[in-house]
């Protein structure tokens, strides 16, 4: 199985590949005695490269509720206090200093930690009750409010990191330190892909948005095989770089070139025993197939006007968040396992009332439309949609608080995310923060808990999805994580 128990049994697909590489290294080195001794060992032949399509070894541990994931990542940290966590007491006490009894000596960033005072900032937006349970949602999110009964809102998320890069790295790889495999890579490694012509893991970043930088390692494969890394689709003429053949190179010529590379790779593999050779060849072949599949999936001309009416006119403009939400639906319809959208600009240390209104206008309608579109096509039941950022925002103002303006600093202690479809409990609001929105008072959910729950919904035991690297078995949830069963339908 691609998903491995942590009971010490060898990972036959992976550990042996490492051994073959070490053996080849010794054979090529000056350590003649070591190579001679190793040559006497009765080692099995190298394991074949793991198939990525129709792979029986990629079966889940138990019956999954979801088959695929669309992760709507709001980069920068959306303020929970202006979106999903209504705090009338914060409005009432606007301008008062943050009480020491609430802060409890917790660390602050260098951006607000040296302020003479930390004035509480009540949100300037109105909240209303929506849905059958009367869930509070901000006026900034009218489209999301209309589908609130289809969502599972978690108000009690918390994390460790207080700055963007370690926080987003932690959310997407399970570690604040770069170099670990991303969530999408883990899923591809564990489950494989049902589509031979498209990547299992696709990434899209809204164009022309400034904000905290996004690095390719956030959708990288880390120490997993390179074939499991995400493929970024761009809004340009060529959605994938170098996908089109140069002038004068025909499809037939490209096929002959790949056949020749396969033969050369086979020779190199026999002499070097490097599994990455197979990975590169597999990626070449996927790219060859993508030359036809990617233009088809990114061409929205076959979508009826009613679809654009649902997602909004922005969906007609390549590279917008709305267009990416529509593309995400098209990708999962064609068997892509994991689609991740990034929308930057949520890092609002100042000018928050104006900036967050823009962010919500760009994302609210399309996010809700995606859920509705999946539902009417019969895809929501086995597609998990996740919305959220890397942390929340403080309940006090960073910088000067005025009648019309304020900002909020980073806040890892509590924030909100929502999930839909894929086996989560619709209409649920999980967790509670204190009356000023600074600390969690009920049902906390850690980042590793959310990761464990996502894997569980896909039929994976997070403690058994492991990979042995440098003598240790790693997993997405590291040494923590629990499935939050209250979120499950």
What is the distance, rounded to the nearest whole angstrom, between the alpha carbons of the first and last residues?
Answer: 27 Å
Characterize the biggest β-sheet.
9 strands, mixed
SSE run = HHEHHEEHEHHEEHHHHEHEEEEEEEEHEE
CATH level-two architecture of the largest domain: 3-Layer(aba) Sandwich
Total count of strands: 17
Relative helix content: 25-40%
Number of domains as seen in the coordinates: 2
Instruction: Report Rg.
Output: 24 Å
Strand content: 5-15%
Instruction: Kindly identify the CATH topology of the largest domain.
Output: Alkaline Phosphatase, subunit A
Please state the overall shape, judged from the principal axes of the Cα atoms.
globular
Structural class: alpha/beta
What is the count of DSSP helices, taking H or I runs of 4+ residues?
13
Q: Which CATH class of the largest domain? A: Alpha Beta
Contiguous low-pLDDT stretches (5 residues minimum) are 1-19, 26-56
What is the arithmetic mean of pLDDT? 87
Could you explain how this protein is built, in words?
By secondary structure, the chain is an alpha/beta fold. The protein has two domains: 38 residues, no CATH class; 380 residues, Alkaline Phosphatase, subunit A (3-Layer(aba) Sandwich). 32% of the residues lie in helices and 14% in strands. Strands 1, 4, 5, 6, 7, 8, 11, 12 and 15 form a nine-stranded mixed β-sheet that branches. The chain has a two-stranded antiparallel ribbon with strand order 2-3. A hairpin with a 4-residue loop joins strand 2 and strand 3. The N terminus is likely disordered.
């Amino acid at each position: 199985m691609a998903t491995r128990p942590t009971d010490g049994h060898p990972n036959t697909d992976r550990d042996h590949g490492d051994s073959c590489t070490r053996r080849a290294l010794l054979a090529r080195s000056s350590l003649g005695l070591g190579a001679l001794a190793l040559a006497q060992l009765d080692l099995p032949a190298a394991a074949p490269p793991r198939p990525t399509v129709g792979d029986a070894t990629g079966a889940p541990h138990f019956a999954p509720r979801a088959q695929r994931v669309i992760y709507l990542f709001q980069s920068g940290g959306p303020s929970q206090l202006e979106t999903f966590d209504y705090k009338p007491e914060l409005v009432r006490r606007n301008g008062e200093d943050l009480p020491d009894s609430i802060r409890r000596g917790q660390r602050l960033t260098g951006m607000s930690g040296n302020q003479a005072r930390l004035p509480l900032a009540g949100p300037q937006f109105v909240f209303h009750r929506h849905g059958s349970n009367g869930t509070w949602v901000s006026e900034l999110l009218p489209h999301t409010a209309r589908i609130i009964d289809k969502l599972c809102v978690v108000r009690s998320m918390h994390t460790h990191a207080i700055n963007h890069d370690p926080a987003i790295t932690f959310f997407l790889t399970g570690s604040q330190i770069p170099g670990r495999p991303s969530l999408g890579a883990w899923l591809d490694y564990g489950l494989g892909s049902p589509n031979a012509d498209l990547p299992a893991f696709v990434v899209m970043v809204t164009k022309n948005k400034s904000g905290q930088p996004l690095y390719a390692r956030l959708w990288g494969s880390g120490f997993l095989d390179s074939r499991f890394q995400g493929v970024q689709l761009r809004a340009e003429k060529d959605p994938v770089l170098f996908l089109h053949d140069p002038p004068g190179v025909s499809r037939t010529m490209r096929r002959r070139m790949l056949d020749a590379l396969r033969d050369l790779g086979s020779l190199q593999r026999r002499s070097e025993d490097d599994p990455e050779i197979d990975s590169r060849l597999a990626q070449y072949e996927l790219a060859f197939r993508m030359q036809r599949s990617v233009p088809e999936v990114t061409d929205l001309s076959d979508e009826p006007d009613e679809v654009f009416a649902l997602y909004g006119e922005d969906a007609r403009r390549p590279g917008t968040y709305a267009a990416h939400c529509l593309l995400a639906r098209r990708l999962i319809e064609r068997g892509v396992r994991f689609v991740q959208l990034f929308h930057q600009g949520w890092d609002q240390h100042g000018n928050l009332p104006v900036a967050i209104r823009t962010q919500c206008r760009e994302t609210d309608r399309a996010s809700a439309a995606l859920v509705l579109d999946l539902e009417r096509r019969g895809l929501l039941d086995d597609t998990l949609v996740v919305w959220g950022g890397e942390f929340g925002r403080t309940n006090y103002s960073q910088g000067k608080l005025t009648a019309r303006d304020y900002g909020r600093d980073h806040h890892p202690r509590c924030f909100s995310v929502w999930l839909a479809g894929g086996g989560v409990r619709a209409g649920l609001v999980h967790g509670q923060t204190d009356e000023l929105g600074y600390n969690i008072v009920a049902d906390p959910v850690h980042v590793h808990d959310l990761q464990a729950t996502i894997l569980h919904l896909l039929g994976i035991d997070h403690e058994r999805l492991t990979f042995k690297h440098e003598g240790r078995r790693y997993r997405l949830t590291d040494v923590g994580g629990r499935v939050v069963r209250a979120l499950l339908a």
